[in-house]
Design a protein that fits this description.
The protein has about 150 residues and is of the alpha+beta class. The protein has two domains: about 50 residues, no CATH class; about 70 residues, Histidine-containing Protein, Chain: A. It has a three-stranded mixed sheet with strand order 3-4-5. It has a two-stranded antiparallel ribbon with strand order 1-2. A hairpin with a 2-residue loop joins strand 3 and strand 4. The radius of gyration is 25 Å and the shape is flat. The termini are far apart.
């Protein structure tokens, strides 16, 4: 695509131009969904107070007697620990029984231990977290180089 074609493409979609706003779409974002409303629909960018009070009213209210399975809880925790940019979860084991999660293994710092527990506690379906993670002991050479 040539530079001229790029400008024509942008002009058609009214990006960076002063064309009439009716060609643009307004977007309203909520926690987990994205709704688009054309400006002519009369919808405002932000929902009103009555709509805002209704948002999320039924979050967490699932079917009667539904309990999330331990396998799904463990899978979710493992995925979150793997994706977290500040936790090295390569030596962490996760087990779950009746919603009670046990973390075992070793990490490099107390901060990682606490973060792993916090990440686990945020997973839906977790009733309690037993954090049995140990902190790796630094070798003698590393201790002498650390500043208190």
């Amino acid at each position: 695509m040539s530079r001229r074609d790029d400008r024509d493409y942008a002009r058609e979609r009214s990006w960076g131009t002063n064309e009439e706003p009716s060609r643009r779409r307004h977007v309203e974002e909520t926690q987990d969904r994205r709704y688009e409303y054309p400006p002519e629909s009369g919808r405002d960018w932000n929902p009103g107070p009555s709509e805002r009070s209704m948002m999320g009213r039924y979050i967490g209210k699932g079917p009667r007697n539904y309990i999330r399975s331990d396998e799904r809880i463990v899978e979710d925790i493992n995925e979150r620990l793997t994706r977290h940019h500040m936790v090295d979860a390569s030596e962490i084991d996760v087990s779950c029984q009746n919603g009670e999660v046990t973390l075992t293994g070793t990490v490099e710092s107390r901060m990682m231990k606490r973060m792993a527990e916090d990440i686990t506690d945020e997973v839906w379906g977790v009733r309690d977290v037993h954090n049995q993670i140990r902190i790796k002991q630094a070798s003698g050479d590393d201790r002498s180089n650390r500043v208190a």
